[in-house]
């Protein structure tokens, strides 16, 4: 009993959350939207009733039962007046509804998710359960939030429709009961069909993802180029056909099960509707019911059934909507287990110390870092080398505060790094990784200035940053130069090479001008001559900054003041280039191998 009560409470809580979101998003349009929906749903009742009164007046006048047409004129005038007012209001509503409701809701939801994903600690983002929650949110929840938000409108409109219809219609109790009984099979099988559809959707989630990915290969220019050159489209379309046929098979199997019940329902409703019409025809023929009364009575009785059906289906669907919206609700209400710090890092003096740091990834059995201790002085140029999986990237992730140490601590200016606020801490770090971001729908200038503290673009600083990163040469050749988009999917856009993208990523670091610069394989796709120029500019530009460079190219790190060598999660060597060469250990041997390969 307690579990059921908790489920009901949760259902109501999520519905309240959706309604609050709708109200906060729509603001004054909330009431316009409510009024428009009530008018839209109520007009058929009004029109039907007024038309019936007009027909009655005409019938009575023709039959010489009345001699004045005053009531007829009044009924026509009221009908036309209401239609004009409702039409004008409807035009106003429908001209702006998309912008103030659907679009506004979509933007509000997307911004809420952007804020939440920016806020959450990385251990939440990498969690497989979170991945499912995010996928379910963006695959269905965004649309279902809007649908669930409309539920209260249906409740209000149903109440108005039902009360109005019952007041206007003179119908025996048994007819009302019959109308309700008529709708029950439709309601049941609609609910059952919706559950079956959702079940098939869930079971086919893998196929839907695969179908979308296969189509996406033809939308990605780099992949499409390979497909066209190597003629891989036949194989891909064969796989696509097999996936789509499996989805089709599952839905056809479901629809076959629903065919017989719906054929029965169609016959059942036709019989009941025909019986109701026969009853009211009898009232016209033998009990003096007027034609207009017959017209609006039969129509409004049908409205009762249709309105009840819509509401029950809506309530049933809302349970399914709730199931998916709950993913969005959980995501938006998730809090970090690891609280943010409160100290502001308000100095450009950056001194780093790792004190016996051990780290194990969530769910992992072995440590990725083992007892790492190192002191990095302010304005020091440090290089990190080592084979893949040695612990270099993990070291940087801990420094970025993406993760916290399993054991030990990291001090920044003598204070544990987690005690600083994330915003003030991260604004001191300029990062260029080998998996750099490509903001293709931004211009060149926006790509470079994306970390501007004032969220503006200084073209003078953009040009200087591009020059220091050796990106200016290719940018100046673009049609729109620094205003050029970086995808051919936008008119006038271009597709930079990987090396050109990497130059733009490095330019971001020059533009941001932050006191701690971290470069993780920043020039892996850039030719050696351009790389040498970039690093020459870098070391000249960052004399007053702390610089940490991770690279597999040993020539790149020679100019560093200190080089540390990682292996199996530990620091095994450290010193200047000359000192490490003289040790004739791992670094010296790796450097020798690279020099030999270079000569070859």
List keywords for this structure.
65% helix; four-stranded antiparallel sheet; ABC transporter transmembrane region fold; alpha/beta; elongated; Rossmann fold; 600 residues; 2 domains; six-stranded mixed sheet
Q: What's the SSE blueprint?
A:
Blueprint: H1 2-26, H2 29-62, H3 70-119, H4 122-125, H5 128-149, H6 151-168, H7 173-203, H8 205-217, H9 221-230, H10 233-287, H11 291-332, E1 352-359, E2 369-376, E3 381-386, H12 392-400, E4 407-412, E5 415-416, H13 422-426, E6 429-432, H14 444-448, H15 459-468, H16 472-475, H17 498-512, E7 516-520, H18 528-541, E8 546-550, H19 554-557, E9 562-567, E10 570-575, H20 577-583, H21 586-599
Parallel strand pairs: 3-8, 3-9, 6-7, 7-8
Antiparallel strand pairs: 1-2, 1-4, 4-5, 9-10
Question: How does this structure look, described?
Answer:
This protein is α/β, with parallel strands linked by helices and 600 residues long. The chain has 2 domains: 8-332, ABC transporter transmembrane region fold; 380-389 and 426-599, Rossmann fold. It contains 21 helices and 10 strands. It has helices at residues 2-26, 29-62, 70-119, 122-125, 128-149, 151-168, 173-203, 205-217, 221-230, 233-287, 291-332, 392-400, 422-426, 444-448, 459-468, 472-475, 498-512, 528-541, 554-557, 577-583, 586-599; strands at residues 352-359, 369-376, 381-386, 407-412, 415-416, 429-432, 516-520, 546-550, 562-567, 570-575. The strands form 2 sheets. Strands 6-7-8-3-9-10 form a 6-stranded mixed β-sheet, sandwiched between helices. Helix 18 (528-541) links the parallel strand 7 and strand 8 (546-550). Helix 1 (2-26) crosses helix 5 and helix 15 (459-468) crosses helix 17. It is elongated.
């Amino acid at each position: 009993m307690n579990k059921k009560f908790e489920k009901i409470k949760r259902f109501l809580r999520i519905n309240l959350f959706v309604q609050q979101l709708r109200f906060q998003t729509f603001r004054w349009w909330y009431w316009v939207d409510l009024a428009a929906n009530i008018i839209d749903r109520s007009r058929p009742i009004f029109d039907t009733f007024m038309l019936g009164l007009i027909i009655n007046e005409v019938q009575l006048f023709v039959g010489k039962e009345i001699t004045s047409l005053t009531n007829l004129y009044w009924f026509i005038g009221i009908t036309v007046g209401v239609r004009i007012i409702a039409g004008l209001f409807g035009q106003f509503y429908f001209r702006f509804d998309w912008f103030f409701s659907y679009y506004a809701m979509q933007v509000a939801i997307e911004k809420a998710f952007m804020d939440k994903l920016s806020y959450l600690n990385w251990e939440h983002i990498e969690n497989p359960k979170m991945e499912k929650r995010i996928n379910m949110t963006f695959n269905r929840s965004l649309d279902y939030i809007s649908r669930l938000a409309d539920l209260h409108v249906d409740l209000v409109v149903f109440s108005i429709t039902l009360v109005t219809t019952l007041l206007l219609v003179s119908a025996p109790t048994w007819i009302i009961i019959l109308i309700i009984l008529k709708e029950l099979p439709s309601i049941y099988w609609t609910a059952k069909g919706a559950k079956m559809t959702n079940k098939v959707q869930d079971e086919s989630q893998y196929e839907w993802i695969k179908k979308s990915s296969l189509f996406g290969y033809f939308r990605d220019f780099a992949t499409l180029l390979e497909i066209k050159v190597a003629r891989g489209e036949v194989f891909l379309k064969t796989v696509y056909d097999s996936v789509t046929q499996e989805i089709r098979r599952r839905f056809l199997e479901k629809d076959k099960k629903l065919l017989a019940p719906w054929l029965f329902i169609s016959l059942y409703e036709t019989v009941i509707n025909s019986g109701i019409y026969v009853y009211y025809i009898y009232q016209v023929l033998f009990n003096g019911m007027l034609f207009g009364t017959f017209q609006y009575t039969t129509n409004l009785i049908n409205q009762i059934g249709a309105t009840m059906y819509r509401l029950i289906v809506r309530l049933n669907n809302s349970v399914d909507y709730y199931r998916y919206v709950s993913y969005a609700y959980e995501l938006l209400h998730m809090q970090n287990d690891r609280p943010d710090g409160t100290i502001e890092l308000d100095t450009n003096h950056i001194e780093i110390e790792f004190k016996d740091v051990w780290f194990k990834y969530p769910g992992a059995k072995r440590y990725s870092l083992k007892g790492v201790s190192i002191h990095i002085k302010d304005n020091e140029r440090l290089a990190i080398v080592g084979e893949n999986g040695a612990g270099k990237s993990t070291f940087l992730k801990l420094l970025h505060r993406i993760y916290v140490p399993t054991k030990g601590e990291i001090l920044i200016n003598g204070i544990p790094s987690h005690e600083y606020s994330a915003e003030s801490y991260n604004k001191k770090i300029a990062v260029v990784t080998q998996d750099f971001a490509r903001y293709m729908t931004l211009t060149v200038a926006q790509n470079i200035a994306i970390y501007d503290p004032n969220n503006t673009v200084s073209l003078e600083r953009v040009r200087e940053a591009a020059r220091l990163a050796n990106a200016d040469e290719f940018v100046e050749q673009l049609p729109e130069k620094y205003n050029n988009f970086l995808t051919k999917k936008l008119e006038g856009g271009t597709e930079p090479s990987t090396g050109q993208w990497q130059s733009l990523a490095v330019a971001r670091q020059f533009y941001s001008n932050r006191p701690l610069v971290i470069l993780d394989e920043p020039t892996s796709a850039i030719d050696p001559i351009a790389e040498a120029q970039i690093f020459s500019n870098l070391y000249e530009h960052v004399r007053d900054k702390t610089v940490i460079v991770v690279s597999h190219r040993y020539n790149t790190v020679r100019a560093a003041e200190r080089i540390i060598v990682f292996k199996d999660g530990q620091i095994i060597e450290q010193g200047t280039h000359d000192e490490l060469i003289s040790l004739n250990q791992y670094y010296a041997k790796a450097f020798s191998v690279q020099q030999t390969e270079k000569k070859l």
